[in-house]
Each structure stands twice: as C-alpha cells, then as structure tokens.
Design a protein that fits this description.
With about 230 residues, the chain is mainly beta. The protein has helices at about 5-15, 205-220; strands at about 15-20, 25-30, 35-40, 45, 65-70, 85-90, 100-105, 120-125, 130-140, 150-160, 170-180, 190-195.
Length: about 230
C-alpha cells in the first residue's frame, strides 16, 4: 500500500464524524521581521477517543498553532524547500502537546522504512508569502511488539484529498493530531480539519504529502483497539 493510500485508509479506520461545515484552510501570517505564525481552523472532525478522552470537546474549539522564525525573511518564488529555522514550534489551543526546536525540522519521527525526510516543506509566492506547506512534529518510540507510541501533528496545504473517507468528493485534510497514541487507552484521542479541496493535487504533490504524513497513517492502522 502506498503512503498516500495508507493515509486515506487510516482516515476511514479512525471513523471521523463531521460535526460542522467543512472549513477553509488556515494560513501563515508574517510579522514583517522574521516570524511566520500559523493559526489553523477549529477542528470539525473527531476521531478515536474524542471527545471523551480529550480535555474537552475539541470540535469547534481546539486548533493547531505553529510558528516559524528565520534568520532572514523567506525569499520569493521558493518551490518545495526545507529552510533551516532559528526557532519553530507546534502546539494546539488546548495545550495538549508542545514541540519546538531550531534548524531543520525533524519528521514525526524519521521513517525507519524509508530515507529520513525534513518535517517542513514549503513554497512561497512572488511576495515571499508562504502559499504551500507541509509541517509535521511529534515524538514517539517503538515498543518491542513493533507498535509505535507517541503524539503527532501535521498541517498541510493544499489539503490532502481523501474523498469519500472524508465525507465525499472534493474533501481533504488540512490539520490533524493524535495525542498519546497507545500510551494509555484512557487518554488517546485524535481530531482534525476537513476542508474543501479546490482541485486534486498533482501527482508530485501527492507523493510529497505521502512521504510527509505516511507515519501517521501507518501508526493509525497498526494501533490495536481493545
């Protein structure tokens, strides 16, 4: 199964339930100096362990927040680059997780079944505005039984097209998190944002998305349910 197909299957396995009108995509806002801040849309889907194991019902309330700080502003017309950061962070409004660091962002974590890849890939327009991105963060370990545990999050634009698994054609995922995966059956939960997809991404973009978030999909499929 390809990584792209694995993610689509994972979405179906999670059993998302739409609770609100499909959202628009979040965006990065530049402070004019060195920092780009992403404020995602409020979650409109609720997955495994949610909302009963979440701090509160995240749909309509919780959302992902990310920051990227660089030594100098991003240049114009960048295409699928992975720039080194002076500082980066990723969290959510509830404070369910917090990841940060500097330099090249790690994957979530590096995929043992393939070459290591950066956790940030972005493109800019003619003004230097970030117009396309994949940003991932997480931590986890692999247990002796082969299962992975940890907390993971990703944001991506354009949305990952997932069709019927997300409620119908023309739908995709922009934000997703899973908290305390398999660490404790009483605390794990996951949620995300399903949005309208203006157009199905070209094959190159799909391949990039598959690499960037394949670990999330594989872990969701491998995790056992009691």
């Amino acid at each position: 199964m390809s990584r792209v197909s694995a993610l689509a299957a994972a979405v179906a396995a999670i059993g998302f339930v739409l609770t609100a009108t499909p959202a628009r995509a979040g965006a990065f806002v530049f402070n004019g100096i060195d920092t780009y801040t992403y404020t995602g849309d409020k979650f409109n889907v609720c997955g495994y362990g949610c909302p009963e194991h979440a701090p509160a019902d995240p749909t309509g309330v919780d959302y992902i927040i990310a920051t990227l700080k660089f030594a100098v502003p991003l240049g114009p017309n960048l295409v699928d680059v992975s720039p080194s950061t002076a500082f980066w962070s990723m969290t959510d409004f509830f404070g369910s997780f917090y990841f940060s660091g500097s330099g090249i962002l790690p994957d979530i974590p590096a995929d043992a079944e393939g070459p290591a890849i950066p956790g940030l890939v972005l493109s800019t327009d003619s003004t230097g505005k970030i117009v396309k991105w994949i940003m991932t963060a997480g931590e986890g370990t692999q247990a002796p039984d082969g299962y992975n545990t940890g907390t993971q999050a990703f944001i991506t634009s354009p949305p990952f097209a997932c069709g019927d698994e997300c409620g119908g054609a023309g739908m995709g995922i922009t934000d997703f998190l899973v908290v305390d995966l398999r660490s404790d059956p009483d605390t794990e939960w996951d949620a995300g944002v399903v949005a309208r997809v203006a157009a199905v991404p070209e094959p190159a973009s799909l391949a990039l998305l598959g690499v960037g978030i394949g670990m999330v999909a594989r872990r969701r499929l491998r995790a056992t349910r009691s």
